[in-house]
Amino acid sequence: MAKDSRLGESLWCEWSGCGYDQQVPTSIIFYTFDHVDLDNEIVRKALASTLQRDGVADGLSDAFKLIADAHIVYGWAGTLEEELDYHSCDESGETEYGDFVDNLESITWIEA
Predict the structure, then answer these.
(1) CB 60 within 8 A of CB 96
(2) pLDDT digits over 34-66, tens only?
């Protein structure tokens, strides 16, 4: 089985969107779609693998320690008209600026 075809391998991505209020100023923000349970083994392993692969953690052991201490936020995001970046919003799809996203998605952010 190829490395990139492991179950959950592409579950997490680094957040490059707009409007998420970072809680820990020195953290790196990752996200996944849906409100996921970080106690789920596949979810935790996928996140740990992402943290290691992206150079946030030196190894899986360090990555699991980061996850244990991470700040987790459940919310919503979507895109505005013809933009590619996601914007955080409330449950109705409204951003902090009063715009409404086109494709509302539940999302989980984690600051590691």
Answers:
(1) no
(2) 999 999 999 999 999 999 999 999 999 999 999
Can you tell me the distance from the alpha carbon of 95 to that of 16, in angstroms, rounded to the nearest whole number? 16
Scored b (16 or more CB within 10 A) or e, 60-74 reads eeebbebbeebeebe
- The amino acid present at 5, given as its one-letter code, is S
For the entire predicted model, the pTM comes to 0.87
Residues in contact with 58: Cβ distance below 8 Å, sequence separation at least 6, in sequence order: 52
Residue with tokens 């075809």: 5
**18 DSSP 8-state letter:** B
* 7-17 per-position pLDDT tens digit: 455 789 999 99
Q: Which residues pair with 107 in a beta bridge?
A: 33, 75
